[in-house]
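Sample intake sheet
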Amino acid sequence: DRLKSSLLSSVSHELRSPLAAIKASVSSLRSGEVDWNTEARADLLATVEEEIDHLNVLVGNLLDMSRIEAGALKPQKKPNMLAEIVGAVLARMRSQMQNHHLEVDVRDDLPLVRVDFVQMEQVFTNLLSNSLKYSPPGSTIQIIARQEGENSLLVRLTNQSLPVPEGDLERIFDKFYRINPSERVTGSGLGLSITKGIIEAHGGKIWAENLPDGLAFNFIIPL
């Protein structure tokens, strides 16, 4: 209960932080102390925009988690090219990944998969975001997709983060769970849990494993 309370407090802090930044920026703009034709005004407006985006992600995660727990996450499955889904995510996250090396091997000739395009985008976004947080700048993140037998597709995303204690490899997909709750890494602690919920809603499974030089997230989705 103490750990849960600490993690809920962390989520509450994550929600309050962007609100505080937005309020401070707007107050400065309304005070009349900032000339509207200066660079300071542009910086304050940029801060407002960035924090609203941050807040939108946090609220979206909380809503998605509530839908998963209520069994209300219903994928709108349609035939999609996995390469197109990955490409859309990478294009949107290009600026965030500029300090990491990215290797992608997701071929256009892979079989089509019946998935919810937006939800699968979120899967890759969450896994990449986690990898960017925990792997050092300059390290390599790799995405590989292969057909697994006749009926499924295997996706493997690897990074060069520190190894996870073996007992925590399954628990990292629990909501609010962090290996070290005091670590100074931002986020709601829901990304991997939501990812697992989406994969399972598609009839697949996801797991993590330590590698000699990092960590791998693996998931299988049926064809």
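Comment: DSSP finds five helices and seven strands in the chain. Strands lie at 78-80, 101-105, 113-115, 140-148, 152-159, 205-211, 214-222.
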